[in-house]
Design brief:
InterPro entries: C2_dom, C2_domain_sf, C2B_Copine, Copine, Copine_C, VWF_A, vWFA_dom_sf. By secondary structure, the protein is an alpha+beta fold. It is built from ten helices and 26 strands.
Length: 523
């Protein structure tokens, strides 16, 4: 997003948000649908002395009586009537009152979005149900203590997402755009609008600004097919090129109209281009040809399939279990250890393995499970490994059924030395590589489930977040079961239930693929 020079990273966030929607196979409530929310404001208060406010919207949701930030928009420079490109996606549970709060702040460059009273431009509360029922809600913004924020209003437009979960990756450039600046070249950016049935226009995407360049190459970007064209290939799209102005008065360079159907000609080696037209120049100038050319360099369509799509398509489930053998579990010879081998009853790890494994094995036709360990020193050299086969056969890490995993676990324990740290990214990446190889066959005939059993917080959180974001593009899901009585608060971050998980660089997961369960609650 352009002009987003200061939105700080999101704080903890509640239930199941995602940029590209995906039906969840085991939702805690009956999800009616996912809803996309678009936000715009009018007549915002001007908090800046030299130029206009730089607004940013925060979306908060009430969870157990507390307001939690779900997500935030880009920052739009010097604009009191902003239309935000950010699309907020929320789960809509029709049987539950889901309270939302939108807060608008004046951002301050690198300092980010402040939450001081003098940066607060106003807030508005409503429910998801109200927005869905009315489709378009415009309400006044209020300051603290119920005071009106002048004539400021906020408009929320909602759209329920259809079942088509594809997204498209687009790469645009332009050539020989008109120069709108006197002493330098134009600073172009591109906006794409979807034209709806009522002829209203919805902003789909706004590129970054390329400074001082009449032939800019914009960064490739991804949008859902639902957002781009309501999954209708012939729906009209309006694309506008502007010359960026830091005071918010952007100069119109030109526009063109197209459809997703036409864009698809850019797949493979082909390119599609359009004349960027300024209607005023076309009328005034006799020899006017265009105000430049916009080229679609590349288009990739990605279909996003849910777990249910794979199962119902006759797909085979491949099940991998990964067991935490770090020293924090305690010496297996000690009865207090989570790995204690009790001849009379299974330990916590075995209980968790059997409870979850028996559910998953119903979907695994060959009943062979890959079984891996991490965080231990292993023979023969007793070096630390974070992805070893617990049957010590690196060429074939599969065990026969849940019972085979149990037997391998019991024979493995006396041979290894519990160590550390708790790194799970290597195992996620290992399973993801197999899933990626499977996906390249184009058959999508296998779906991969990774069950991670661990006693505490992972040490390589940044690498784990990165690995999960990468894995979210693959036919793969991860179940993390917390064993024992540790504080698993940090582990909830990996589960999409507190908002969209992001990589350290800020890239969101394509779909929520992680389910975290403390075993003490599961029991």
């Amino acid at each position: 997003m352009p002009f987003a020079h200061g939105a700080a990273g999101p704080r903890p966030r509640p239930a199941g948000m995602g940029d590209v929607p995906e039906p969840c196979p085991q939702a805690p409530l009956a999800v009616l649908s996912k809803v996309e929310l678009r936000v715009s404001c009018k007549h915002l208060l001007d908090r800046d002395t030299l130029n206009k406010s730089d607004p940013c919207v925060l979306l908060l949701m009430q969870s157990q009586g507390q307001w939690m930030e779900v997500d935030r928009s880009e920052v739009i420079k010097s604009n009191l009537n902003p239309v935000f490109a950010k699309i907020f996606t929320v789960d809509y549970y029709f049987e539950e009152v889901q309270k939302l709060r939108f807060e608008v702040y004046d951002s301050h460059g690198q300092a980010g979005v402040g939450t001081h009273d003098d940066d607060f431009l106003g807030g508005m509360e409503c429910t998801v149900g109200q927005i869905v029922a009315q489709k378009r809600v415009t309400k006044p913004l209020f300051l603290k203590y119920g005071k009106f924020a002048g004539k400021s209003t906020i408009t929320i437009i909602s759209e329920e997402i259809s079942g088509n979960n594809g997204y498209v990756e687009l790469a645009f450039r332009a050539k020989k755009l008109d120069d709108k600046d006197l002493f330098s070249k134009s600073d172009p950016f591109l906006e794409i609008y979807r034209i709806d049935d009522d002829r209203s226009e919805q902003l789909v995407y706004r590129t970054e600004v390329v400074k001082n360049n009449l032939s800019p190459i914009w960064e490739p970007f991804k949008v859902s097919l639902n957002s781009l064209c309501s999954c209708e290939e012939k729906r009209k799209l309006r694309c506008v090129v502007w010359d960026y102005d830091s005071r918010g008065k952007h100069d119109f360079i030109g526009e063109f109209f197209t459809t997703f159907e036409e864009m698809q000609k850019a797949m493979g080696e082909n390119k599609v281009q359009w004349d960027c037209m300024n209607p005023k120049y076309k009328i005034k100038k006799r020899n006017y040809k265009n105000s430049g050319v916009v080229v679609l360099l590349d288009l990739k369509i990605h279909r996003v399939y849910s777990f249910l799509d794979y199962i119902m398509g006759g797909c085979q489930i491949h099940f991998t279990v990964a067991i935490d053998f770090t020293a924090s579990n305690g010496d297996p010879r000690n009865s207090c250890s989570l790995h204690y081998i009790n001849p009379y009853q299974p330990n916590e790890y075995l209980k968790a393995l059997v409870a979850v494994g028996e559910i998953c094995q119903d979907y695994d036709s060959d009943k062979k499970f890959s079984a891996l360990g991490f965080g231990a020193r292993i023979p023969p050299k007793y070096e630390v490994s974070h992805d070893f086969a617990i049957n010590f056969n690196p060429d074939n890490d599969e065990c026969e059924g849940i019972q085979g995993v149990v037997e391998s676990y019991q024979s493995c324990l006396p041979k290894i030395q519990l160590y550390g740290p708790t790194n799970v990214a290597p195992i996620i990446s290992k399973v993801a590589r197999v899933a990626a190889d499977e996906e390249r066959t184009k058959e999508a005939s296998q779906y991969f489930i990774l069950l991670i059993l661990t006693d505490g917080v992972v040490t390589d959180m940044a690498d784990t977040r990165e690995a999960i974001v990468r894995a979210s593009y693959l036919p793969m899901s991860i179940i993390i079961v917390g064993v024992g009585n540790a504080d698993f608060t940090d582990m909830q971050i990996l589960d999409g239930d507190d908002g969209v998980l992001r990589s350290p660089k800020g890239e969101p997961v394509l779909r929520d693929i992680v389910q975290f369960v403390p075993f003490r609650e599961f029991k």
